[in-house]
Design a protein that fits this description.
- The protein is mainly alpha-helical.
- It has one domain: 3-Layer(aba) Sandwich (Rossmann fold), CATH 3.40.50.
- The chain is built from four helices and two strands; from the N terminus they run H-H-E-H-E-H.
- The chain has helices at about 10-15, 20-35, 55-60, 70-85, and strands at about 45, 65-70.
- A two-stranded parallel sheet has the order 1-2.
Length: about 90
Amino acid sequence: MSEFDAVAKSYDADFTASLIGRRQRMQVYAHLAPILNTMAGKKILELGCGTGEDAIWLARREFSVTALDASSEMIKIAVKKTEKAGL
């Protein structure tokens, strides 16, 4: 059992959707996009994927993503979000 299992259900509301969470992702994505644009279709291994927010962002950019996390509860949420996104 991971420490993140206990916070998995509220993680997106508490962090992903928070102002700092959104700004952090915007900065990271802005930095990564030019690099990743030359690599579409490649495989990416994401360690510590949490609720899958970044894995979904990568998959929408035509990457084959394998996302892993120590928290089984985070993985459950990531799977649901991925299915909902149609990926």
